Fold each of these.
Amino acid sequence: MAWKTLDDMELGGKVVLVRVDLNVPMEGGIVTDATRIARIVPTITDILSKGGKPVLLAHFGRPKGVVVPEMSLAQVVPALQAALPQTKVIFARDCIGGPAKEAVQSMGAGDVVLLENTRFHAGEEKNDPMLAASIAALGEVYVNDAFSAAHRAHASTEGIARLLPNCAGRLMQAELSALEAALGNPARPLVAVVGGAKVSSKLELLGNLVIKVNHLVIGGGMANTFLVAQGIEVGKSLAERDMAETALEILAKADLSGCEIHLPIDVVVAREFKAGAAFEVVESSQCPADAMILDAGPATVAHLAQVFAAARTLIWNGPLGAFEIEPFDAATNAAARQAGALTVTGKLVSVAGGGDTVAALNKAGVADQFTYISSAGGAFLEWMEGKDLPGVAALKG
């Protein structure tokens, strides 16, 4: 573990700049899902307990370097205050300059400051050294607790870390520890489930995984592309036929590295894509010309149950079918519940991430059974692709 944690830092009396993820869903100026706020509370309370003064940095939306009132973090203050009932939350109308300095100077013991949207400054996404220095001047220690933004080399995620003593917050620490257990030094056999619509969007991911995992399960529309590459017709199913050669290259690479790829044995097909549509289960090679594949079948699920049962570590990104509507959520739900049950009994370390994945696991009712679920979309994917994340690299000095 090359990065420090809050346990390694002396924070007594110091102003601690904390990069957090407050890019929460809003409706009518009200936070509709406070999950991301709840997940930063342990870091804030730990800093306070160590005598530090937390000053929060965050972005909201894509204002592209100009002030957009609808993207002000002021609207997040009530939800943040509700998550920290014993704490006074002070809002600063800017993340640099007079408003920021005044807010920090006004802090009493136990107070928290939230600075305005860092992306109101064009220098944020450009990782401008002047902006980073201006923000860094407000504090004495930098804590990054926003793994979800760690794949961006921005002023508040990378620039400031180069200027101040730094460490990972509790959420970042949990995320990095979970990912290290899953891909860095995993217990084997290691299984990866990769689903979703398009092979083209996950090329780097697949290329990296086939040289690292023992088993790669491919589901969703991506699986159709692999079936087509092997000369199997998939009717009206979603498939990237122009990616067939690439799919064959991935299969060959997997073969060379000793990675076993698992594609659907049987599939659920329908003539229309709607809830409750009439469907049938056929072998994966027998999709009718006028039908489309919308889920993996029961034989595939039974096969995956055996693969999971023999595994020690599982990484999951993407559903196995059109999980959003019934009855095409069956394979994703069944496989997720199997993974959850194995995790609960201590037989499996399971790490999942990506927006659709989190939604699918919540729908299956097993999100709380997985070892760790990452709320970071792009950062989680880039980590799985084997890329160095700027926000993490900066913490390593």
Amino acid sequence: MSTFIQTKRLLKYRMGLIRLKQMGLEKVFSYTLGKEAGVSAELVRKDFSNFGIKGNRRGGYDIDDLLNSLEKIFGKDRVQNVVIMGMGNMGKALSQYRGFPDNKMNIVAGFDIDPAKINKKFQIPIYPVENLKEIVDAFHVSVAILAVPEIAAQESSDLLVRYGIKGILNLAPVLLKVPDDVVVNNVNLMVELERLMYHSGVLK
């Protein structure tokens, strides 16, 4: 869990660095980056040290060098192939999201059990589920987006795991059972909305 939380912080640092670079800055100190990410300067330095990233206490970190190091950690120095399981409204919307290619994520294919969707015009090729292994192997895919109805989520997850997927972004409102070596990131929009309402005082 601690490693997962740490990588989430690294992603926050990356977003902060991109923003600072857009502002024209070339150097950044740990306290400035910590302020961007909402953590202490000490934690920033500790996170970087754990990944072998070193800075200069007086001169700070070079933003370009720091971004390059983070890009390598998250594999953004190369294109990452991803598949989408479930091509309903959510899957279709994700297939058209321009932010993926901008961040070197390539959605290579979508899969659905509905034959009518196979011939529809999407941004990506749509295959029947029977072709999942073939595509995963051909494009060396290790991460999938699960956008199927709740009732089909576990079965679809089992299939993804069986064919070598090691990371699943789960958009279905159900907790998946997966092996210990598979990482699942659950994104439940209803839960997130309820959390926002609570913290904004709507439900108090």
